[in-house]
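User: I've been trying to design a sequence by hand for this structure and keep getting stuck. Would you show me what you'd pick, starting by listing the structure so we're on the same page?

Assistant: Good idea, let's start from the same input. This is the structure you sent:
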């Protein structure tokens, strides 16, 4: 059984140990030690990385009471080695995990919901709760969670006796046997946990909710803590700076400026659509035969069907073509006959696809000039 030094002191990053096993596996090596400060992946928290006897520690897992270290080179069984845990990754994991405890504990105490799923991902921490929360609820929990952080309360690790445990109120995702490790954050949470945590909540820095969504019968909340939260906020602020410069407005006026810009876009789009329809109608006025065709790049996409319907009035066929980077989008309509055979013939002649009811089809033609398409259309 590996002695787990991280349970005794989460700030311990360097240690010595004896190699008790080393086996090759898929080009890497799985090493066991008599004791370790490397935390193995588990309980939603990722494994520690670092070095062991000069070898890179790529991953750690628990197996049969042992902590298995995946390293990039073999280590001699029986040798004494030095281990060094990656301090940046360890602090990141502790910040995320301790922040999750605070947030989940507050949700449990305020609303009575359990955290039924938790994962420290590479981009965010996700928590799944088995009950509904509103945006106002989540804002309230976030504010309270950060108050706990700023109060810098101690994060306590307890190993209660079975009798003490039976009288203790604590969160746990499953029934536990044997020795149970309890992490207690006064005012926020008491929870069974095997992970590493900061010693004081102030080391978390801050807890920021990225977003939330409905998930099964409850909600999934995504948060960032500590360095991750600061990096995300800096990235967002840089985006705001860029937007405010492009829009020639103050940073706190970006949303208002974007809304104004979108309103102007919608006004111009409507005006362009009206002009496009007018251009189409002028072009259509020159089509008087039984088979009519208009090529119009000014026609808005949403008006192509309507335009084809107008074009075929008083005619046998009405074909509207809208140029694309390659080929055309089309709408083919008729008041008197089934246009589907004509559609198949055009697609066969010029490559493309299309379909629809017998009086109106839509699709794309991959090639052909307007003159070539008109020539084929007149033969059908």
């Amino acid at each position: 059984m590996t002695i787990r030094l991280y349970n005794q002191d989460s700030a311990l990053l360097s240690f010595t140990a004896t190699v008790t096993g080393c086996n090759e596996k898929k080009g890497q090596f799985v090493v066991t030690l008599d004791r370790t400060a490397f935390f193995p992946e588990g309980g939603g928290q990722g494994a520690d990385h670092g070095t062991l006897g000069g070898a890179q520690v790529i991953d750690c897992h628990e197996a049969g009471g042992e902590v298995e270290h995946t390293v990039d080179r073999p280590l001699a069984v029986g040798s004494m080695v030095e281990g060094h845990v990656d301090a940046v990754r360890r602090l990141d994991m502790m910040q995320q995990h301790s922040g999750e405890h605070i947030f989940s504990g507050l949700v449990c105490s305020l609303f009575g919901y359990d955290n039924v799923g938790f994962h420290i991902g590479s981009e965010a921490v996700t928590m799944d709760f088995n009950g509904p929360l509103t945006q106002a609820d989540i804002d309230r929990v976030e504010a309270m969670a950060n108050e706990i952080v700023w109060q810098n309360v101690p994060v306590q690790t307890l190993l209660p006796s079975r009798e003490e445990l039976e009288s203790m109120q604590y969160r746990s995702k499953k029934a536990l046997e044997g020795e149970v490790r309890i992490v207690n954050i006064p005012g926020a949470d008491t929870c069974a946990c095997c992970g590493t945590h900061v010693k004081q909540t102030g080391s978390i820095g801050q807890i920021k909710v990225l977003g939330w969504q409905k998930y099964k019968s409850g909600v999934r909340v995504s948060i960032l803590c500590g360095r991750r939260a600061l990096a995300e906020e800096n990235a967002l602020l840089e985006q705001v700076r860029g937007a405010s410069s492009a829009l020639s407005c103050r940073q706190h006026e970006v949303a208002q400026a974007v809304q104004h810009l979108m309103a102007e876009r919608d006004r111009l789009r409507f005006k362009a659509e009206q002009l496009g329809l007018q251009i189409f109608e002028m072009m259509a006025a020159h089509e008087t035969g039984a088979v009519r065709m208009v090529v119009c790049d000014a026609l808005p996409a949403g008006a192509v069907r309507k335009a084809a319907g107008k074009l075929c009035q008083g005619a046998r066929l009405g074909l509207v073509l809208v140029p694309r980077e390659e080929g055309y989008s089309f709408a083919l309509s008729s008041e008197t006959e089934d246009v589907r055979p004509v559609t198949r013939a055009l697609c066969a002649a010029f490559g493309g696809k299309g379909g629809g009811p017998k009086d109106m089809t839509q699709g794309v033609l991959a090639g052909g000039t307007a003159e070539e398409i008109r020539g084929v259309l007149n033969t059908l």
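That's my pick for every position. To get oriented when you compare it with your attempt: The mean pLDDT is 95. Residues 254-284 form the longest helix (31 residues).
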